[in-house]
Amino acid sequence: MAPRTARPAGTRPVGTPTRGTTNPNRLRRMDRWIAAVHGAGLRRAERAPTAVDLGYGAAPWTAVELLRRLRDDADPRTRVVGVEIEPARVEAARPYERDGLTFVHGGFEVPVDGSPALIRAANVLRQYDEDQVAAVWARLCARLAPGGLLVEGTCDEIGRRHVWVALGPEGPRTVTFATRLASLERPSDLAERLPKALIHRNVPGEPVHAFLRDFDRAWAAAAPYASLGARQRWIRTAADLAADWPLMDGRRRWRQGEVTVRWSALAPGSY
């Protein structure tokens, strides 16, 4: 099992508790993307890579699922540590510990030994002010192993709509929009799930607003493809969008209901 804690005795976790809302399979889209995009990085690690589920909430489902998905689809050596700032949530999760899965009390200091290959922080920063985000990102990125990945974002309660930022030790890299296509009316429906760094920037004059505007226009132009199914319409939309925006993925990921764009194209001026 992974070590329980690397936080010095007597120190307090950094951060504040979340509402704790969680559901089985809520983070499946994020997990699927992590395994596909970062799986090779996990496999290159000399030692068994450690993945952190930061702020997993009132129930341990997302950590349990992350272990299974990363071991099945990325690297069978992967260990997962669930980190929660509420001690009662940690105690409630302990019966679910198994080989490769442990739960510890902590926050943004990420109290695990060594440097994690992955930190996933889903639905954690929504309660913070926007001007706090950059410092949290920097703190978490500083905990990553060389070549490691921080994935921070937001989804709805059952995981149909998701937007996340991927960051390396050097800072933010990409933004991914992911959705259950059958439930999508237009791409800008995802705006309500923008991560904290972007959600208040969805106003005229900001890059993310322009991106979502162009996304909707491409979706409308691709309406004839709807007769072939929502997936084909999404693929056509993404192909058209790529003519004007630096998309970082291709048809294989688009088929999953995803579009990933370079962070620099959407970044507010303060980042």
What does this protein structure show overall?
- Residues 7-25 have a biased composition (Low complexity).
- This is Class I SAM-dependent methyltransferase.
- Keywords: Methyltransferase, Transferase.
- Its EC number is 2.1.-.-.
- This protein has 271 residues and is α/β, with parallel strands linked by helices.
- The chain has a domain at 28-180 and 246-263: Vaccinia Virus protein VP39 (Rossmann fold).
- The chain contains nine helices and eight strands.
- An eight-stranded mixed sheet has the order 3-2-1-4-5-6-7-8.
- A hairpin with a 5-residue loop joins strand 5 and strand 6 (161-168).
- Helix 6 (207-221) packs across helix 7 (230-241).
- It is globular.
- The termini are far apart.
- The model has no long low-confidence stretch (mean pLDDT 94).
List the SSEs and their pairings.
Layout: H1 28-44, E1 50-54, H2 61-73, E2 79-84, H3 87-93, E3 101-105, E4 118-122, H4 130-142, E5 149-155, E6 161-168, E7 171-179, H5 196-199, H6 207-221, H7 230-241, H8 251-254, E8 258-262, H9 263-266
Parallel strand pairs: 1-2, 1-4, 2-3, 4-5
Antiparallel strand pairs: 5-6, 6-7, 7-8
Helix pairs in contact: 1-2, 6-7
